[in-house]
Amino acid sequence: MRYLTAGESHGPQLTTILEGVPSNLPLKAEDINEDLARRQKGYGRGRRMQIETDEVEILSGVRHASTLGSPITLVVENNDWKHWTKIMGIEEISEEEKEEVKRKITRPRPGHADLIGGMKYGHRDLRNVLERSSARETTVRVAAGAVAKKILSELGINVASHVLEIGGVRANPPQYKNLNELKDRTNESPVRCFDQSVEQEMMSAIDSAKENGDSIGGIVEVIIEGLPPGVGSYVQYDRKLDSKIAAAIVSINAFKGVEFGIGFEAARLPGSKVHDEILWNEEEGYTRGSNNLGGLEGGMTTGMPLVVRGVMKPIPTLYKPLQSVDIDTKEPFSASIERSDSCAVPAASVVAEAVVAWEVANAIVEQFGHDRMDLIKENIDRLKSYAGEF
Ligand code: EPS
């Protein structure tokens, strides 16, 4: 499977076309809208989220609530577009009109794509860069991920995400009975955190960042349960599932790092404390005594829960002035901006869930038969019973 996204933050709409989604997958707009709504929530978002009510329109590839196997087109309208029709219009405008059209940007934000994107594409109005580099694009990545999650759920595979850290406030490792409990509680939490004892502290950290005109980042975690062993491969670098997931995580706006299982902690421990001992019992077949490697060995799933974390830097759009240079005058300036999120970590956890789900679903679809959901299911069941007896 593959997908592309298109659309500007304040343009008319965001679009994604998903290619290679198997046929006969039950799919309704509600399945996608639920995740779009989850992405819009989260303490620390700015005023833009009050303007938008993200809802998908499915324009191709689905008939009578079931996929056809043909490309699926998903569109989400930007409600804010109506305020930007002149500024973001597609039609030609005269030089005088251009002067009238305010909001030309010549002052790049440190940490954003503005300066280098302008240099690279030859845009002296940096709006031409920021409109596409904006995290608004993650809306349709979540829509694509919702379709991937639907594939996984049909195969008995469960995907969750939660927030582990915001602005230096750390949650205790979540102790949950099952993944649905983790999902239910984090969906209720304003910061998408399982540990209620730190929720308030996280929100206070967001409040004080906002008061100071600053922004804060954090750490999110994605967990996938119910995977068969052997998804991905060790035989070639570009077939390793962990490499694809790592690329997907750092492709999310503002994400700077990724780790699996105990991650960077593995550097500080001896091998005897890192590797997960292999066990076997009649009922479950092969299992592990621990899951330090996050469900991946040799670029393949082990059958244990897949655990991956991503690090989000603070959003670079700050009310607090940071030193930069105006590209027209070359004068230094430190300006404030109009509108920003002070923290988007809770929303980013939903995005992380979507992009990881896509990579895992894609690897499964490629490996277990591309075309039809029923054949994919049969192939996975066959592999699972083989693995149990192996
Ligand atoms: C963003 C800036 C803000 C965010 C936006 C990402 O938008 P605006 O410039 O319209 O205030 O709200 O995020 C979204 C719109 C979204 O849907 O997540 C940026 O510059 O990256």
Automatic annotation (TrEMBL):
CDD domains reported for this sequence: Chorismate_synthase
Gene3D superfamilies documented for this protein: Chorismate synthase AroC
Organism: Priestia filamentosa
Assembly and interaction partners: Homotetramer.
UniProt xrefs under HAMAP family: Chorismate_synth
Catalytic activity: 5-O-(1-carboxyvinyl)-3-phosphoshikimate = chorismate + phosphate
InterPro entries tied to this protein: Chorismate_synth, Chorismate_synth_AroC_sf, Chorismate_synthase_CS
Function in brief: This reaction introduces a second double bond into the aromatic ring system.
UniProt keywords, alphabetically: Amino-acid biosynthesis, Aromatic amino acid biosynthesis, FAD, Flavoprotein, FMN, Lyase, NADP
Pathway: Metabolic intermediate biosynthesis; chorismate biosynthesis; chorismate from D-erythrose 4-phosphate and phosphoenolpyruvate: step 7/7
GO molecular function: chorismate synthase activity; FMN binding
NCBIfam families to which the protein is assigned, alphabetical: aroC, PRK05382.1
Gene Ontology CC terms, in alphabetical order: cytosol
An individual GO BP term: amino acid biosynthetic process
Cofactor: FMNH2
Binding residue positions for NADP(+): 39, 45
Stored Pfam families: Chorismate_synt
Protein name per Swiss-Prot or TrEMBL: Chorismate synthase
Cofactor note: Reduced FMN (FMNH(2)).
Residues annotated to bind FMN: 132-134, 253-254, 298, 313-317, 339
